[in-house]
Amino acid sequence: MSPKSWEVLFLQIDEILNFNAKFVENEEFKPYETSNIPNKKMVILTCMDTRLLELLPKAMNLHNGDVKMLKNAGAIIRDPFDSVMKGILVAIYELQAEEVLVIGHRDCGMSHMDTNVFTKRMRDKGISEQTLENLENAGIHLHDEFQGFTNVEESVAHSVSIVRNHPLLPEYVKVHGLVIDPGTGKLDLVTKAE
């Protein structure tokens, strides 16, 4: 990262902290007070795409306190014991969630992820060839870790399948899969629990 980029970063964090001090001082947090238990007893896994930050809750009529929201690149679960799945299980066992929604989206950056280009960008930003080799030798294959998908519906269905078939998922928990259009907010059902 160039020094100019660091300068911008510090300016942004300063701006955030200044805003936050006023936010707290003026008690602007009051309308958002709620408990840690989701009102709708639901946990959602979705993508970290910036277009969904406000659109997804609005498109689903969700308000502060309604759901537990987990995000990652692509709303992808590949491993039954990765951090996302652990978050889902915590939401179920500790926070009373009874439904899980996996929500992918159209035009997702993970749908055209090229791991070769991604690795080149790592090198361009200072990650050494030795570090990349060490990771490969340790069994961490960047292609496997960062590969995307070609079909969002199939990706959502795959993630839903991992959740539904998890050995620690209680039978009463319903797991659904959807895809949202980040341009319109339209939701399409991929799979609905019986």
CATH topology of the largest domain: Beta-carbonic Anhydrase, Chain A
The poorly predicted ranges are: none
CATH architecture heading of the largest domain: 3-Layer(aba) Sandwich
The CATH homologous superfamily of the largest domain: Carbonic anhydrase
Assembly context of the chains: single chain
End-to-end Cα distance? 49 Å
Instruction: Please give the number of β-strands.
Output: 5
Q: In angstroms, what is the radius of gyration?
A: 19 Å
Family: Belongs to the beta-class carbonic anhydrase family.
Protein name: carbonic anhydrase
InterPro entries: Carbonic_anhydrase (IPR001765), Carbonic_anhydrase_sf (IPR036874)
Cofactor: Zn(2+)
How are the elements arranged and paired?
Elements: H1 3-25, E1 42-47, H2 52-59, E2 67-72, H3 83-93, E3 99-105, H4 115-124, H5 129-137, H6 142-146, H7 152-164, E4 174-180, E5 187-191
Parallel strand pairs: 1-2, 1-3, 3-4
Antiparallel strand pairs: 4-5
Verbal overview:
Helices cover 41% and strands 16% of the residues. The chain has 194 residues and is α/β, with parallel strands linked by helices. The protein has three domains: 1-33; 38-111 and 148-191, Carbonic anhydrase (Beta-carbonic Anhydrase, Chain A, 3-Layer(aba) Sandwich); 114-142, no CATH class. The protein has a five-stranded mixed beta sheet with strand order 2-1-3-4-5, with helices on both faces. β4 (174-180) and β5 form a beta hairpin. The longest helix has 23 residues, at 3-25. It is globular and about 50 Å long. The N and C termini lie far apart (49 Å).
